[in-house]
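Comment on both lines for my students:
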Amino acid sequence: MSTHYRIKLLTLITLLLAGLPAMAGDAASELPASLADSLRPIPEVGLDELGEQARNSIQMARQQLNTILQTQPVPRDQLAAAFGELGRFYQVNLVFPAAEECYQNAAQLSPDEFRWAYYLAYLADTSGRTRLALERYQQAGTLSQDYKALTVRLGNVLLDLNEQEQAQAEFEQVVEDSGLEAAALYGLGQIALLQRNYDTAIDAFTRALKYDPAASRIHYPLAQALRAIQRNDEAKAQLALRGDQPPSFRDPLIESLEALKTGSRIYFLQGMKATKQQDYAAASEAFAQGLALEPDNALARISYARTLYLADDKSAARQALESAIAIQPDNSLGLFLLGILAEEQGDSDQAVEYYRLAIRYTPEHAGAHFYLANLYYRQGNYTAAAEHYAGSIKGDAGNLAAYVPYIGTLLLGDAPGATLNTALEDTIRQFPENPAFQAIQIMLQAASRDPSIKDPQAALRNAQQLNEQQHTPPHQELLALAYAASGNYKKALSVQQELLSYAQRAIPIETERLAKTFAYYQAQTLPPLDEVINLAAMQAPAFNPGPVFREYPAPRPY
């Protein structure tokens, strides 16, 4: 970071700490005219009762919002996120009215964004507006069917409203979902207790405690159920354990919200924003400031390492990754990135070790499988490469880059025809719009010597269909091959002659190859498979670490 930039940043932070605006006016409380009719102003509120870190975080988030509001034209998505982030800081610091206004603006700007609808519902829930919370959770549910924590919260508010049948239906949906079992069983136990189904209640509460032994709130209703069936000694023991800790459950959005109580989060947010803007020096500086406040945050340290790498400080990046792994040894992303660094530095053995560790902790880690497969492919270990390409595809079925070398390793490794055929069929189903894989299948059906995949009639049908869809020289060449494979050398020669004449006029560089194939057909024989399939085009892609550090998704960046 330049000295000039440091001075500007320190000046801004000093102004914020003094409670002064960094620029004249406050656009959040006096919205620009273009937004005044559609959005709610966010008046400044007194923050004297909050701690210094909380005040600084709110002021910095508000300044970021003001900066965006003063941008012309105002970027709508960025504005929604800025209102939402300010709302999160207000909410976590119990400034509920301001949080409500911020979330309303974020939802108005981005009505399809689940998180703002969910935070609005959670805000109503935690501020005692149960009926409104129910309506908002139901609305949020229309934006995302997959966020299971919402189902638990919906069940809880239905139970608070004594809608027992509906609450039970919600809890039963997630009672077997990992991380939600204790909360769902606790809800089902309360319903059973209200309905005087004491044995059912005891079973549900007991199972909930097995999932979350620290949930001391469960002991009291369990004692009530035990007492109701005269198991008084057990009830007395449960009463002695009662407390006020409810069952915890996995809720990433609320966990993210609670994490804002740590002052480091504002710096991590700044780091993420700077990363998106490709200002990696500023991003690494922001992450460094956050880590000074929260040094044991392994996830943030990995993000920090990525910004250091992208700022061309690879030595520091490696040190940051090693520190993150020392804190969290089973972090697969960190191990994967260490493998990338080791391979970049020419240490293949170390890279293999890191990739394998990443896969041990996350068996379907698509990135580690892919780069390990590429490494094995270049070493000529085709069987191992094929195994890891398959693992990468299992982890990320949409990664087209894994499929071409996967087929290449199967061919080079003399995989059984049935294995090849299955892989090709799966690939064609995954990418029906990509004719390259259909072409490989036709070549194998026509020219392979393996009876489990050789099928000249299927080759001819598929080649004819491909030509009907898109009449191109490569597809005509496949059609000629298919005719020859099915014994119709006259048609094969006719199509190949047409191709040869076209090449002589338009692409002379292809003439020699096409003429050689024409000679095979004249001799009423097929060209060998290694002349039909271009294996050079199916090699492992060149090693390229930059996009991994820049783009590989992190489950959580801090």
About this structure: Residues 52-69 form the longest helix (18 residues). The CA atoms of residues 185 and 204 lie 5 Å apart.
